[in-house]
Design a protein that fits this description.
2 copies of one chain form a homodimer. Chain A is of the alpha/beta class and 253 residues long. Chain A has a 7-stranded mixed sheet with strand order 3-4-2-5-1-6-7, with helices on both faces. Chain A is globular, with a radius of gyration of 17 Å. Chains A and B meet through helix 2, helix 7 and helix 9 of A and helix 2, helix 7 and helix 9 of B. The structure holds adenosine-5'-triphosphate (2 copies) and magnesium ion (MG) (2 copies). The site of one magnesium ion has 5 residues of chain B, from helix 1.
Chain lengths: 253, 253
Amino acid sequence: SAEKIIFLNQKGGVGKTTTAVNVGSALAQMGKRVLLVDIDSQSNMTSAVSADSRLPGTYEVIVGQCSPRDACQPTPVKNLFAMAGNINLAGLNIELVNEESREFFFKNAIAPIEDDWDYILVDCPPSLGLVTMNAMCWAKYVIIPLQCEYLAMEGLNMLMRTIANIKKSLNPDLAILGILFTMYSKRTKLANDVVEDISSFFPDLVFKTIIPRNVRLSEAPSHGLPINVYDASSAGTKSYQSLAEEVVSRVRK
Amino acid sequence: SAEKIIFLNQKGGVGKTTTAVNVGSALAQMGKRVLLVDIDSQSNMTSAVSADSRLPGTYEVIVGQCSPRDACQPTPVKNLFAMAGNINLAGLNIELVNEESREFFFKNAIAPIEDDWDYILVDCPPSLGLVTMNAMCWAKYVIIPLQCEYLAMEGLNMLMRTIANIKKSLNPDLAILGILFTMYSKRTKLANDVVEDISSFFPDLVFKTIIPRNVRLSEAPSHGLPINVYDASSAGTKSYQSLAEEVVSRVRK
Ligand SMILES: Nc1ncnc2c1ncn2[C@@H]1O[C@H](COP(=O)(O)OP(=O)(O)OP(=O)(O)O)[C@@H](O)[C@H]1O
Ligand SMILES: Nc1ncnc2c1ncn2[C@@H]1O[C@H](COP(=O)(O)OP(=O)(O)OP(=O)(O)O)[C@@H](O)[C@H]1O
Ligand SMILES: [Mg+2]
Ligand SMILES: [Mg+2]
């Protein structure tokens, strides 16, 4: 059955989508069968892999209008498929709020296809609302992308508490696979301070791989391509490949 | 009565908070009486001006537990006050969903103090949910911070459509004061492409001021200070001062 990973941080713009797409593509390049699931109504992940957000996607699967199998679209990368996000996901918080088991709609809907994949990676929106709860109640592993900036640090404690609460009350299997520093620029004192502080608080959680600030990583989505296709020799490609190897070794433990 | 401005973009991490805080502080430095209102449950704006998110704030005012006057806290900057955000704002989407006039709670709650200020600036979360709707149904002006990156552009069309819809159905006074390019790095081809494209689509909306990527701007919040206090001579201070002057001249038209 698939390894189930979510990319989670309620802070905006910290690299969740960029990480989901490029870890997924690096894993696919290693020969893993990977499904990327976009659960963000802004559907950045969807366009970053040239998937079509007008076709039935994650929302339609969650509310039972489309079978999960039919919502898996191919991407430019062999072994990499995508379930599209669309604007309907924005209404889900309110649609589901009075439902029995409202946090388990995604888990139940995706169960039939979990054996078809080696990895299922879910890209979350910048919020801890009901949609993200659905992802957290399904997942086994959480990867927390963390921008090397002060404002990004503020939310980390709250995020850790939320994960602990979900683990206690709704999903005992949930575990933090790791904290990933993103958009790191080595000549910046603030970035180095952030890396040092977080590494000292959470020495076992922090990934060895640090993703550098790299303009090719921000260009790739405009071409609908993961970084390893857009620019195979870039620093962005190398670092996400190294991260994918760390992910593989951590899920095996 | 106060000029009523919101900092709006559903995309995360594009500089809404940094812009709200530093435009507010620059206006205060010009002698304007400025109230910063944090309507984001992550309360980044609150800590960026050393305000206390444990005191009654925007949530308590919205639900009528605290008078708006009592929720205005002083900041390190003369003439600059802040209404704090806190985690209770996260539940508001659901709390208000069945209320009569659910989009007008903020407008009604803040009305009593609008004559006390020259400017009221509201920092929004990265979403278009009910909390942000409350800000949009109260505001006169919208400032859209836009990161010079492809993924940030994707949401702009949807945001413009949402503003147009609100203007038509719920708040005819709503107007876009301008689009602001943030985190611009001039040697990046992508940044220049983004500025060119958006400027050609919306020539009258784009501010002349462009905020450069500037590490001092990302350090300032960790000291609880706006940029003009933290580092008065930095490029960040100069650009937000120039933006504040453009804002003053545009609201006068
Ligand atoms: N290492 C990097 N170097 C340069 N740019 C990057 C890097 N990682 C991400 N970006 C860019 O930064 C912006 C934010 O990244 P991204 O969209 O992945 O964050 P996010 O956490 O998914 O945001 P949101 O919370 O809005 O979903 C995007 O424009 C992206 O292309
Ligand atoms: N011009 C700039 N130069 C360098 N860093 C910046 C600049 N503007 C903002 N930042 C940093 O980028 C990050 C995102 O900025 P900010 O928090 O203001 O965005 P936001 O739109 O309010 O995010 P959210 O959607 O999560 O509320 C912060 O760490 C901030 O300090
Ligand atoms: Mg994203
Ligand atoms: Mg913010």
